[in-house]
Every structure is written in structure tokens, then in C-alpha cells.
Amino acid sequence: MVLIVLSRIMKSKVECVKKNHGIQDGEIAYSDLDVPGKSFFSKRYRITGKPDYIVKRENWYIPVEVKAGSYGFPRKNHVFQLAAYCQLVEEYFGVFVPYGILVYSDGKRFNIPFDPRVRSELEKTVNEMRQVIEKGKISMVAGDSLKCKSCSMRDYCNIKIL
């Protein structure tokens, strides 16, 4: 009896999370929001990361990234982050990932195809980042002191706002 009650409570919590973040139907196969999840690693690109959720639908695993803010269209940096998660999930589960989902806090949701163009741009961007790190210098990109302060590339940047 206790297991049945616990199972119903867990199912209710999962449904609430899915509803609050606009996550499509399917089983939540992984979550990093309520309890820290494990990191995924790509041997191909030598990158690591943790999507907010992974939804399993039929034989597909779909990464979901939840972002604060209100945007009329997906931000480029969010698309690249999601593309990296698609690659990580594809390698980890060994199955094709057709798309990922960006969910903004205003309720807007975007299905981002993980198509050949996005795959190619991801590879190009990762290679460019590696070259910058190897050279040890990067030019300021953001132009925003708040972003500069918390930037992961701050140690490599040749211009400091703060």
C-alpha cells in the first residue's frame, strides 16, 4: 500500500514539473533541476554538460533546456547549448536525436531541429573555441560588464570590463 501511495505522489510531481515547464508528453528519463543529475560526455567533441531534462518518447530521447527570460525567437547561444546537449544525449544513449526543446520562462517553447546544418555549426563552434583556448587569448564578445564578470572565458580574454 505504501508503495502505491509513493508511486502516485511521484507521478503527480512529475506531471506538475512537465506542466510548469511546457514539457511534451513522454517519460522524464533524466532531470538536473530538482536533484543534480550526472554530467554527460562527448568523446567526439570532448565536451560535457547536463541538460535540464531528457524526455523519452518512443525510441527518442529529447533534451529540454529551460531558460529564464522572454524572447520572440530562440537566442543563438541557447540553440548552441541545446545542440551540444543533443550531441551528448545522442552519444550516451546511442540513438538518433531529431531535435531538442528550448522552454523560456514566459511559456514560449521552441523545437530546435538537430539537423546537418546545426550539427556542422556545433562542430565549427567547438573547434573555434578550442583554438581560442590553445592560443590563450580571446577578444571581448559580450560588451556587458555583468556578463564579463561571470564569463567562463574571462581568464583567456585580452579585454576586461571589470
Can you put this structure into words, describing what you see?
- The protein is globular and about 60 Å long.
- Strands 1-4-5-6-7 form a five-stranded mixed beta sheet. A two-stranded antiparallel sheet has the order 2-3.
- Strand 2 and strand 3 (47-49) form a beta hairpin.
- It has four helices and seven strands, in the order αβββββαββαα.
- The model has no long low-confidence stretch (mean pLDDT 82).
- It has a domain at 22-114: Alpha-Beta Complex (Lambda Exonuclease, Chain A), CATH 3.90.320.
- The longest helix has 20 residues, at 116-135.
- The protein starts with a helix and ends in a 12-residue tail after the last helix.
- The protein has helices at residues 2-20, 76-93, 116-135, 145-150, and strands at residues 27-31, 40-42, 47-49, 53-57, 60-67, 99-104, 109-113.
- It is an alpha+beta fold.
- Helix 2 crosses helix 3 (116-135).
* Number of helical segments with 4 or more residues: 4
Mean pLDDT: 82
How many E-type strands?
7
Oligomer: single chain
Distance between the termini: 59 Å
CATH topology of the domain at 22-114: Lambda Exonuclease, Chain A
| Secondary-structure element series | HEEEEEHEEHH
The rough form would be described as globular
Alpha-beta content class: alpha+beta
